[in-house]
Give the backbone structure.
Amino acid sequence: MRARPLVLAFPAALAAVAGLACLTSALASNGGFEGLPQFAQATPPAASPPAAGGGPAAGPIRPAFSPKQFCEERVARRIGARAYLKAKLDLKPDQVSAWDAYQTAADAQSTKDKTRCAALPAEMKEPPTFVDRMNRRQEWMKSRLESLEAVKPTLLALYDKLTPEQKAVFDRPMMGRHHDGPGRHRRRG
């Protein structure tokens, strides 16, 4: 049984040597150690300027959040997901009219969503309260439900015209974190 630790140690040592070899060859091709982060500094960095008001900052500085920009990004991603889906489906001539009906309904909802986005604040320096977040989430869910209900009939009509291979493409969730388009699934941990 004493040979087992050696059997386990050998692959680990081999992996370490291979990693070191890759690191040194990468350093050689990139010109050496100059681009790597430094672990010790010869002199401490200069102090950052004081926060507005003359006193030290009361915690980390958070960048301003833009609900408007976040909303516009979400709409743009949804529009992009539709374009991607259309390209992946490789529609047949008899399916184009069903896609066009779906696209028209989806574009109308995207226009409404863009109008909602335009009404949001461009910048928030203070984080919203729990109640603000809950209300904003509720409004977002209502608008998504409205959009889904408006698009669903044309989407189902399109789905019925697809071949089994196209339905497999349509049913497959898109990769990425936040995609709310048709046939997409979001998982949150």
User: Anything to note?
Assistant: Residues 23-30, 35-39, 177-189 have pLDDT under 50 and may be disordered. Helices lie at 3-30, 67-89, 96-118, 130-161, 164-171. The radius of gyration is 27 Å.
